Amino acid sequence: MGDMPNAATGPRRRADAERSIARIVSAARRCLSGDPNASTDDIAKAAGVGRMTLYGHFHTRADLVEAVMVDALRDGDEALSAVDLTGNAQDALDRLLDSSWSVMAESTALLTAAQGTLPAERIRQLHAAPAQRVEQLIRRGRDEGSFRTDMPITWLVNAVQYLLHGAAEETRAERMRTEEASRLITATVRSLLAAPPDPDGTVR
Amino acid sequence: MGDMPNAATGPRRRADAERSIARIVSAARRCLSGDPNASTDDIAKAAGVGRMTLYGHFHTRADLVEAVMVDALRDGDEALSAVDLTGNAQDALDRLLDSSWSVMAESTALLTAAQGTLPAERIRQLHAAPAQRVEQLIRRGRDEGSFRTDMPITWLVNAVQYLLHGAAEETRAERMRTEEASRLITATVRSLLAAPPDPDGTVR
DNA sequence: CATAACTCGTACATTGATGTACGACTTCTA
DNA sequence: TAGAAGTCGTACATCAATGTACGAGTTATG
Q1: Going residue by residue through chain B (204 aa), what tens digit of pLDDT does each one get?
Q2: A82, A121, B38, B87: most buried, per Cβ within 10 A?
Q3: Is B15 within 7 A of strand D by CB distance?
Q4: Same-domain status, B88 and B188
Q5: Residue A138 shares a structural domain with residue A190
């Protein structure tokens, strides 16, 4: 499963094809971000390419969705890797959220598309890298004593993710402006992760 | 749209039919909670009823989904209405979450089913009642001074909802046990809504 | 008990998307 | 510039689900 579009595969592809693939993936990303159920036909059209060309590169729709997810998450992880995570963990987190926010916001629909076609486990794998970054930061914040320690990290990471997702959804539905969402998300996550101010005995 | 299965409609239906409808809705609820894409055929079978009978009562699949949502949300709201919301808002909230948690947990898939078939606006309407309850409680907590006031209530309500959704998802995927989820959810929401302990000037 | 309401099987029309087959035409690339 | 690689249209084969049509058999209910 998944033949040609692997970066690791020998580059026995014509420059031509390379370009087509890029256009297709990018178009797919656009389409699926708008409508999780966009058909291969829609996507091909949006890419300015025949449907057959598309199937020449991606044997199945799932293959395509997977490629798109990989692409989007690579972008995301790239954006995250550019964030300065040194210094005060609280502030670092703010910066991190600011960056992930935009990527996240435009990929909500994409995610649900993936959930419809890819096995849940695969999706998890793909998210591993970015999740890792968040997790590490939280861990550091804990060591610094500025983040709470009374809940498993896994849950905290997930909670942050779900909140981001929610904010993205609200934005998409135009019940919130993007700037407002950004503000609320950081404030919310901040108080979610903050060490409880109440050190009365519950040190466990 | 939506003919027969209205409680308000004159009861010109045979007891027989009434029973069938009940069985169908209940079966649909079970099926859709397991698989958001369950077909009308699956549902009819699960209800121990012919597919045609089903279509006799619900002209379209959407009609059925809608009925199921109404049913589930009525149940939910009923459960909530039984919760004692007097006294300390923090504690009341804990109780409220405890109750909504179980309903929520079993209806996650159902929600995504609805999102696939019903217009977003309709879903919102249906959720209005339970959302109202949460909102009122939050409002009271604010007046008491125990809940934060630096974010719009709408956002807080939504945030809580998304967190619940997330916890439900984690449970479904068996990455968390139900009891643990329950504990984490209350703790998380508690610190999300709590008034910031840091009243240094930012009174606005 | 008579009739209207309900059940439900089989069969079919429809729709919408996926994926395949074939073949002619174009464009890289060696 | 020859031939391999890629493009892409038309057409077709599936497939799965939705919803309709017809009609014979059941069962509530007045």
Answers
A1: 334 444 445 557 889 999 999 999 999 999 999 999 999 999 999 999 999 999 999 999 999 999 999 999 999 999 999 999 999 999 999 999 988 888 888 898 899 999 999 999 999 999 999 999 999 999 999 999 999 999 999 999 999 999 999 999 999 889 999 999 999 999 999 999 998 865 553 443
A2: B38
A3: yes
A4: yes
A5: yes
CA A166, C1' C18: Å apart? Answer: 32
Query: Are residues A20 and A39 part of one domain?
Result: yes
Q: Which of residues 82-121 of B touch A (CB under 8 A)?
A: 120
For chain A, the first-to-last Cα distance in angstroms comes to 49
Which domain, by its residues, includes A37? 7-59
How many angstroms away from the CA of A15 is the closest CA of chain B? 40
CA atoms within 13 A on the CB side of B22: 8
Tell me, what's the pLDDT at A13? 79
Pair A147, A118 in one domain: yes
Are A57 and A1 in contact, with CB atoms under 8 Å apart?
no
Q: Is A128 on the interface with B (CB under 8 A)?
A: no
Dihedral pair phi/psi, residue B191, rounded to 5°: -75, -20
Distance, in angstroms, between B152 CA and closest chain A CA?
Answer: 9
pLDDT over 80 (residue A12): no
Tokens read off for B128: 């209005």
Question: Which amino acid, one-letter code, is at A148?
Answer: R
Which residues fall within 8 angstroms of residue B55, CB to CB, at 6 or more apart?
Answer: B40
B51/B86 same-domain check: no
- Which CATH number fits the domain that encloses residue A16? 1.10.10
Say what the pTM is.
0.88
The answer to whether A155 contacts B184, with C-beta atoms less than 8 Å apart, is yes
Note whether A44 and A94 are same-domain residues: no
Q: Quick one: closest CA in A to B124, which residue?
A: A173
In Å, how far is A162's CA from the nearest CA of chain B?
6
Q: Do B120 and B106 lie in a common domain?
A: yes
Does A176 contact B184 at a Cβ distance shorter than 8 Å?
no
| A27-61 confidence digits (pLDDT tens) | 999 999 999 999 999 999 999 999 999 999 999 99
Q: Same structural domain for residues A72 and A25? A: no
Cα–Cα dist B95/B76, whole Å? 14
Q: A108-117 and A120-144 helices cross at what angle (nearest 10)? A: 130
- Would B105 be classed as within a structural domain? yes
